[in-house]
Specification:
Helix content is 26%, strand content 16%. By secondary structure, the chain is α+β, with helices and mostly antiparallel strands. The N terminus is likely disordered.
């Protein structure tokens, strides 16, 4: 299974799944792991026989020479939440993931239309919609979303957005600053 998550704080708050595109082979292991994680049995051999068939919430799309796994980005001002007439699309906290209450979903598909990433799909029976929930059950068990440990090249990572941004800023600054040996005394 995946790495154990930090204890004590909300497992998904302020976190996101990111993809290092240069590492993605387009193998679709993330899609399979997602479907199995959201299956009734949670077992690949049993999930194959389930009806309806388990559906993935991540899709690998071709991006030039690479693949790009796309799933809900849990947008800050999520248009799916704004258009949902039954408030089935919601957040449990301000910085938490966008979740769907399938019992309240009427299958109007307005969320599918407004999603800028096309990452919301209809359920097998068409009565509700499906989207990435960051594998809430796995997070509650202290594990990462299923797609992350399934990624053989570690292209997918589950990161704290603030910490990740901080590291990216530092790396950018280090690339920009000239090495001290090129500075000359005036």
């Amino acid at each position: 299974m995946g790495k154990t998550m930090e204890k004590g704080k909300s497992r998904a708050e302020g976190k996101a799944i990111i993809c290092r595109i240069d590492r993605c082979l387009g193998c679709r292991s993330c899609e399979l792991a997602c479907a199995v994680a959201h299956s009734e049995s949670q077992d690949i051999m049993k999930a194959i026989l389930e009806e309806p068939k388990p559906k993935r919430r991540v899709r690998v799309e071709s991006a030039g020479a690479h693949g790009l796994p796309l799933q809900c980005r849990h947008c800050e001002n999520a248009p799916c939440i704004m258009v949902c007439p039954t408030e089935a699309m919601h957040r449990d906290s301000q910085r938490g993931p966008v979740l769907i209450d399938e019992a309240r979903c009427i299958g109007c598909k307005l969320c599918m239309v407004v999603c800028p990433f096309g990452s919301i799909s209809a359920s097998a029976d068409g009565k509700a919609v499906l989207k990435c929930d960051l594998c809430q059950k796995r997070l509650e068990a202290g594990e990462e979303p299923a797609c992350v440990p399934a990624c053989l090249t570690h292209a997918l990572q589950f990161v704290d957005v603030e910490e990740y941004s901080k590291k990216k800023r530092k790396a950018a600054a280090e690339r920009i600053v000239l090495p001290s040996s090129t500075w000359s005394a005036a």
